[in-house]
Design a protein that fits this description.
InterPro entries: Helicase_ATP-bd, HsdR_RecA-like_helicase_dom_2, P-loop_NTPase, Restrct_endonuc_type1_HsdR_N, SWI2_SNF2. One of its GO terms (molecular function) is ATP binding. The protein is an alpha/beta fold and 788 residues long. The chain has four domains: 257 residues, no CATH class; 204 residues, Rossmann fold; 206 residues, P-loop containing nucleotide triphosphate hydrolases (Rossmann fold); 49 residues, no CATH class. Helix content is 41%, strand content 18%. It has a seven-stranded mixed sheet with strand order 1-6-7-8-9-10-11, with helices on both faces. Strands 16-17-15-18-20-14-23 form a seven-stranded parallel sheet, sandwiched between helices. Strands 24-31-30-25-29-26 form a six-stranded parallel sheet. A hairpin with a 5-residue loop joins strand 21 and strand 22. The longest helix has 21 residues. The N terminus and C terminus are likely disordered.
Length: 788
């Protein structure tokens, strides 16, 4: 027992000593902590008197001998009304005298008084703090800022046989969330559970329902922390995160109070949540801003952060940081920050987040339509401008124009943050789809859709724009993506130790899966061929105990579906008998089809089958672009669904609709956590396979797994597509244009194809009366074989 206590005390002591010796803290006195108001009154008053003596004297002339008591009462009341975070950031007022509760590090050193005020902050680390009037329970550590407790910490040491899981249990069952120090946004803003290997945190204690987030660095692109040969795996917490500059940076410029309007049982309310940055979010913002501060504009950065990484918050924090960044000469690094995104929520999120930091409106300017307004915003140098991916070329051209005709005006520098957030609309703006599809067969429809669009994503268009304009020394690009293509790595990546382009910062799909932020869609992936072989196993499943169920499953398992109607039966029966019971009966499915004609015919067939069987609890929606002419009948998405295109995401989110049939829409950028199953009837490969199947990976309460039934692809091909993005994407070989000519020479030397044949082929290929639609599959196959 003595050894265990000594071991845990040693761990605690090591943290405290580091924070005091190198972290900018002083040792707090647990006896000074007032349990009734959860405040170190002595330190609080000391801070106000020393940092703002004139204001204190002014208030003293009003309150006299009761100044301390009245100021504390006023402060406690303000925190109770406005919340701790707001009072820490904006201060409080007593009888017209405005006090700051904390001072944050200035972005530049132009004002020496600001640095003095920052130095006046008093950070305390206090051991074994007794916080309750009801019992003698104590917290291992409390981090205080000017007397106010802003973080509580429970420590465990593996050598005692306990881990962070025990610390979580301690918070959940031994710490009453009604105690003032634990009340949401009333005192401590975050609660850490820490052992020698891992760290977790939460911003709201609610007993057994408390939700914890990992605050770990990641180990070999997975969860946890790497081995630290110099000490504990978690020592980055007290050596960096909790150290004065980092900690006050997080409190002042990262922690965010998110407010969401919710409606339940007809009653509207505001749901509040304190957002504390996860480790990789703080790391990437700090890393990027430090690099930009040192090297200035003209750099490209690729941030490969998986789905589930919280990119919206990362972009918001980075935008704010870059907009006020100064270099070592106290000059602004960027005159404007331009955020390129199609996320509709990001503009309001950015505005709200930055308002909490700046306490003023108008910092963020959103422009999604008129180019002249965008030009005006760039010309007048708004701090932060948000616009859409479609406006990216215009932005770059306008910046170049301003630079070219600047005259006597000083050059302006820009940070352009590019958010991959692929449009769920299937890229109508980037893909030149034929407005009316009139193919007569499904095979023709598939080829016609393939021929009438490019396989370009917004990522491709951005890359082409940058390459065509050349490097611009007054612009730095910060590109966020979960699935970078090889070409994107060439443009945005930095050369690693192996001489190949790689991301500037990585939060891998593997880490996101292992940390529980997204689901691993490959775990539930199966081809129909494999699924059929499981027939016997499924029939013997004890969960399916009705004779009717066994017969139905045996029926659709034995179909060997080759035509659309058979596949329809398989999908609907599987959804009805298996999927519909998932996620507490709320599960939804997506059918990925090969063309717009496929989507139309599937919609018609699905609805026919559902009506024939009397399955009134399953309803479908369809998503495709333009108009489809099928045997003289024209179909449009808006008419088949009977409501507007923009309404589809909201409608599908209701309990009225269960299955969404898509043709090149909603395969990317569509965030619907209730999507559990995907039926794939389309050839997929590479990044498209990853982006499409990843529609299922979003988590929600009750969602424990996902399922993919693939009629069109091989399992090994899908696995190969995912592999580059599971951990880190690197470019195996840089693109060398001359390789194409080398290959041409080899083909000519081998006399595989004659130049005259190429010319004749080209004439036919580019002849609008002939075109690729009339090329036979044998010709396509032959070309594939001789032109690998």
């Amino acid at each position: 027992m003595t050894t265990a206590i000594h071991t845990e005390e040693t761990f605690e002591q090591a943290i405290v000593e580091e924070l005091i010796e190198n972290g900018g803290y002083i040792a707090g006195d647990p006896n000074l902590f007032d349990r009734e108001i959860a405040l170190d009154k002595t330190t609080f008053i000391q801070f106000l008197q020393q940092s703002q003596p004139e204001k204190w004297e002014k208030l003293h002339t009003i309150h006299g001998a009761n100044t301390k008591e009245n100021v504390i009462k006023r402060f406690v009341k303000e925190v109770s009304l406005r919340g701790a975070l707001d009072v820490i950031r904006k201060g409080f007022t007593d009888y017209g005298v405005k006090f700051q509760t904390a001072f944050f590090k200035p972005e530049s050193s132009l004002n020496p008084d600001s640095q003095k005020l920052y130095d006046a902050n008093i950070l305390t680390v206090t051991r074994q703090v007794k916080y309750s009037l009801k019992n003698e329970n104590s917290l291992d550590l409390v981090l205080g800022l000017n007397g106010l407790p802003i973080a509580t910490i429970e420590l465990k040491n593996q050598m005692t046989g306990q881990t962070v899981e025990n610390a979580k249990q301690q918070y959940n069952f031994d710490r009453d969330p009604k105690e003032l120090i634990f009340q949401f946004n009333k005192r401590a803003l975050v609660h850490f559970t820490v052992d020698t290997d891992e760290a977790w945190m939460t911003t709201r204690l609610i007993g057994s329902q408390t939700f914890y987030l990992p605050f770990n660095k990641g180990d070999n692109n997975g969860k946890g922390n790497p081995v630290n040969k110099y000490g504990y795996r978690t020592d980055y917490l007290w050596k960096d995160t909790w150290a004065k500059d980092s900690w006050l940076d997080i409190v002042g410029r990262f922690i965010h109070l998110e407010k969401e309007a919710v409606e339940q049982n007809g009653k509207k309310s505001i749901k509040e949540k304190v957002i504390f940055p996860r480790f990789h979010q703080y790391r990437v913002v700090k890393k990027l801003s430090n690099h930009a501060k040192e090297h200035g504009p003209g750099k490209n950065y690729l941030i490969q952060h998986s789905a589930g990484s919280g990119k919206s918050n990362s972009i918001a924090w980075l935008s704010y940081r870059l907009s006020s960044l100064h270099n070592r000469f106290d000059e602004r690094v960027f005159d404007s920050v331009i955020v390129i995104t199609d996320r509709r929520v990001l503009d309001s999120q950015l505005q709200d987040t930055i308002y909490q930091f700046e306490h003023k409106e108008g910092v963020v300017k959103k422009i999604d339509k008129k180019s002249d307004q965008l030009a005006d915003a760039i010309y007048h140098g708004f701090n932060i401008i948000i616009t859409t991916l479609q406006k990216f070329p215009f932005v770059i051209d306008k910046i170049a124009e301003l630079e070219k005709y600047k005259g006597e005006r000083k050059s302006r520098n820009y940070a352009v943050i590019i958010d991959e957030a692929h449009s769920s609309q299937g890229g109508e703006a980037s893909r030149k789809m034929k407005e009316v599809l009139s193919a007569k067969t499904l095979e023709e429809a598939m080829l016609e859709d393939m021929d009438s669009k490019t396989d370009d994503s917004p990522e491709d268009e951005i890359r082409r724009t940058m390459m065509s304009r050349g490097k611009q020394k007054n612009i730095s690009f910060f590109a966020f993506t979960a699935t970078p293509k090889a070409k994107t790595l060439e443009v945005f990546g930095e050369t690693g130790e192996n001489g190949k382009p790689e991301p500037f910062d990585l939060y891998s799909m593997r880490q996101a899966i292992e940390e529980g932020f997204i689901l691993d869609v490959l775990k539930g992936y199966t081809t129909y061929k494999t699924f059929f072989k499981l027939n016997k196993a499924i029939e013997d499943d004890p969960k399916i105990d009705t004779r009717k169920g066994k017969v139905a499953i045996a029926r659709f398992m034995s179909l060997h579906p080759h035509n659309l109607s058979q596949k329809t039966e398989v999908m609907i029966e599987h959804f009805r008998q298996v999927v519909s019971k998932k996620i507490n009966g709320q599960a939804k499915a997506m059918v990925v089809t090969s063309s717009r004609l496929h989507a139309v015919r599937y919609k018609v067939e699905f609805d026919r089958y559902l009506k024939e069987k009397g399955y009134i609890n399953i309803k479908t929606l369809v998503a495709f672009s333009g108009t489809v002419d099928d045997e003289g009948i024209e179909y449009k998405e808006i008419e088949m669904n009977q409501f507007g295109e923009k309404e589809l995401p909201r409608k599908f989110n209701t309990s009225e609709f269960q299955i969404l049939l898509v043709a090149d829409k909603y395969q990317t950028g569509f965030d619907q956590p209730l999507l559990h199953t995907m039926y794939v009837d389309k050839k997929l490969s590479g990044v498209k396979a990853v982006q499409t199947l990843s529609r299922l990976n979003r988590k929600c309460r009750g969602k424990e797994d996902t399922f993919v039934l693939d009629f069109a692809n091989e399992a090994d091909d899908i696995k190969t597509s995912f592999q580059p993005y599971y951990e880190v994407t690197t470019l195996e070989e840089k693109t060398e244009p001359n390789l194409l000519y080398d290959q041409k020479s080899r083909i000519e030397a081998a006399q595989v194809i004659w130049s005259s044949e190429v010319e004749n082929f080209s004439k036919k290929y580019f002849d609008p009366k002939f075109g690729i639609l009339h090329m036979t599959s044998k010709v396509l196959y032959t070309l594939k074989m001789i032109l690998p």
